[in-house]
Amino acid sequence: MADNKKIDLTEETARRWLTERGVQIKDIAELVFYLQEKYHENLQIEDCVANVERVLSKREVQNAIITGIQLDMLAEKGMLEEPLQSIIGTDESLYGVDEILAFSIVNVYGSIGFTNYGYIDKQKPGILARLNDKSTGECHTFLDDIVGAIAAAASSRLAHRAAGVDRKD
Ligand code: MG
Fold this sequence. Notes:
CATH superfamily: PgpA-like
Pfam families: PgpA
Bound molecules: magnesium ion
Helix content: 55-70%
Largest sheet: none
CATH class: Mainly Alpha
CATH architecture: Orthogonal Bundle
Domain YutG/PgpA: 28-160
Number of helices: 9
Structural class: mainly alpha
CATH topology: YutG-like
Organism: Neobacillus mesonae
Number of strands: 0
Distance between the termini: 13 Å
Number of domains: 1
Order of helices and strands: HHHHHHHHH
GO biological process, one term: lipid metabolic process
Protein name: Phosphatidylglycerophosphatase A
């Protein structure tokens, strides 16, 4: 991120909550590397970090992050009303709103993000395996989809730029 860029409250909160919930930029960059390694010779982790940073700078992404993490945090504290408390607290598989929220991130750099998202959601490499570990007592019903979606969007941006598609954002 550019040094002279002013970080507002929404972006600051989104970034801080990711960290506080155990997700580092590098964890997401490693997912991007996992998705894109086979398509780009000499792909560097720094390229993946840079693309994750660009995704995180978008307001619609920040909004999805703070909304999803807020619900996870409230569920973890048992502070939601029923039936939502049980649904989110147990990560009920047919709920689906966590994935719908993540779609608002997946698509910011074009529809190939969907392919990446579906793939990584099935494979659950790296940080995604930890976020899906139900034995920790933590609630990451929304966060796992958000992290997968950020990685998918960053992969999409990286692929577009590698293909020489002129995108200014
Ligand atoms: Mg989920």
